[in-house]
Amino acid sequence: MRWVGSALGVLAILAGAVWIAQGLNLPFAPRSFMTSDRAWIVIGAITVLIGVVVLQWGRRRGR
């Protein structure tokens, strides 16, 4: 089960990073309805934080 928590944490971190990039309208970010919408910066940051917590929880649980 350790790898499940780690995988979910990494996926949440990556998704949050993409949402932040889209909210900031960075040139390499994919275009979507989220582009240049500042709300996605906040949502992405919260998702990244949740991903970090889940990743740490998954790593500690396996010990």
Describe this structure in words.
The structure is a single chain. With 63 residues, the chain is mainly α. It has one domain. 71% of the residues lie in helices and 0% in strands. It is built from two helices and no strands. The protein has helices at 2-23, 39-61. α1 runs antiparallel to α2.
Tell me roughly what share of residues is in helical segments.
over 70%
Rg over C-alpha atoms, rounded to the nearest angstrom: 13 Å
- Which of globular, elongated, flat, extended, rod-shaped describes the shape? elongated
**Tally of individual helices:** 2
Strand coverage percent:
under 5%
Question: What kind of sheet is the major sheet?
Answer: none
Number of strands: 0
- Ends distance: 11 Å
Oligomer: single chain
Topology as a string of helices (H) and strands (E): HH
Number of domains: 1
Poorly predicted residue ranges:
none
- Structural class of the helices, strands and pairings? mainly alpha
Mean pLDDT: 89
Task: Give a short synopsis of this structure.
With 63 residues, the protein is mainly alpha-helical. It has helices at residues 2-23, 39-61.
